[in-house]
Structure formats: C-alpha cells, structure tokens
Design goal:
single chain, about 140 residues, alpha/beta, Nucleotidyltransferase, domain 5, globular
Length: about 140
C-alpha cells in the first residue's frame, strides 16, 4: 500500500512516501505552510499524484507521551485532513524524528544548507518508516 507521510511543522510540512509494497521510503518535498486550506489542497494533490492509499501524520507528543500544544494543533489538522480526503489518515508518534533526520543527513554528507532545507522531509521519511514497522509488527 502506497502511503504519504507528513511532518507537520509551524513553518514547513515535510512529505515522504513509500513504494506500493511498503518496502522503500523516500523523501518527496518540503512545503512552505500557507494556510490550513492551502496546505490541505497541496496534500490532496500529492496524495492523488502519488496514488496514495493512506496518509500518516506525525504526532509531536511530549517526551512523557502526553499531548501538548503542538500535538493538539496536529490533531486539529488531522481532523481537517480526514474531512478533505477520501483515504484513511493515521497518526504516528514522532518524538525524536528531527534529531534522527539530522543524523541521517550528516551520515549522507549533506551540507548544512541542504540539511536545513530538507530536514522536514527526512523527518517525514522516519515517521513513515516507524509507521510501517509498527503496522508490520501488528500483522
């Protein structure tokens, strides 16, 4: 199943996707946030363009697992996205994904400017990888 992953930030949205078998995950792009409606329209376009069968949105829980302001905003966005899309929308704990994304990009030898501009899509890639691992463990 092809899945689109979303790392929702206050300024940018990172996008990643997996192949139809859910084996490989790749970063797609970073969207500069405009408005909730504009952001959702762009995600609708990408979901259709990539033939996504589901969307997973990173949920920025606090380190103790509780829902804070950022996670509350993400859940509101998820509700709006569910109303706009005809495919399932899931959430995935995204604690420490930005740190892990930074490490991966450093290991790939990416320069600081590249890491800054692509960190959100790499975080989305990690969110999707974690989601797929969790789904495989349940089945």
């Amino acid at each position: 199943m092809r899945i689109l992953a979303v790392d929702l930030g206050s300024k940018n949205i990172g996008i990643a996707a997996c192949d139809a078998l859910g084996i490989s995950v790749r970063p797609i792009e970073t969207i500069r946030r405009t408005s909730v409606n504009g952001d959702i329209e762009r995600l609708k376009f990408l979901a259709a363009d990539l033939d996504a069968e589901a969307v997973v949105v990173g949920l920025p829980l606090r380190m103790d697992g509780s829902v804070g302001d950022a996670a509350g905003k993400a859940l509101k966005f998820v509700d709006a996205l569910r109303c706009a899309l005809a495919i399932p929308v899931f959430t995935q704990d995204e604690r420490l994904t930005s740190y892990e994304a930074e490490q991966i990009m450093r290991e790939r030898g990416m320069r600081r400017e590249q890491r800054r501009s692509r960190s959100d899509e790499f975080a989305a890639m990690i969110i999707l990888r974690d989601f797929l691992s969790t789904a495989k463990a349940k089945s």
